[in-house]
Amino acid sequence: MITVFGEGRGFRVVWLLEEMGLAYRLRPVDLLADVSKDTEFLAINPAGFIPAIQDGDVTMVESIAIMEYLMARYGPTPLSPAPHDPAFPAYQQFLHLGEAGLAASVYLFLISREGGAERQNTGASKALEVFESRLGLVTRQLAHTPYLAGARFTAADISVTYALELAERTRAVTLGKTEQAYVDRTSGREAYKRAMEVCQATKVWAAEASAERNSRARDA
Question: In the CATH scheme, what architecture does the domain 88-187 have?
Fold first, then answer.
């Protein structure tokens, strides 16, 4: 059975596994605790970050790489268009943009924000600038198609949805109507809902973030 170590970006992996109907288990990893004492996890990923997976003799890290491995190993799947499919270029672009252009930029923004006065912080400002420029690519694509690779849902949507929800829940940005409608569409999938039930820490965080947004809206 496939073991997924950690939530966070591991939510992408769990969601993909639910979409594909593959057997797995989630093994929580608490990065806020002393991860150096988690010898089982460090045996899988000595670098100590999440997610990681163990699939038989295979161990892997990096959420997008893990997703590509699972689809190649256990596919074919409509979540990954074939190279000759007209949807393939957009699929590849947004699959990777969801991490390299969006989620990574949000992470850098949040780290800089911890020091306060983020808008005057050069690193935070640049990270937010990068995020917003890449978000523009998402918005432009969604003006023409319901999903990022075209008419059907793919793993690129898992990648980008995670990044947009990360940005929204951490108050890095406020999503526009187009992006919010897209997230509502992707997060309405049954596999997403099942993944959220498995990832209880993510579920709690999402609920807390939603409650805070609603409170701010009432106070505005």
Answer: Up-down Bundle (1.20)
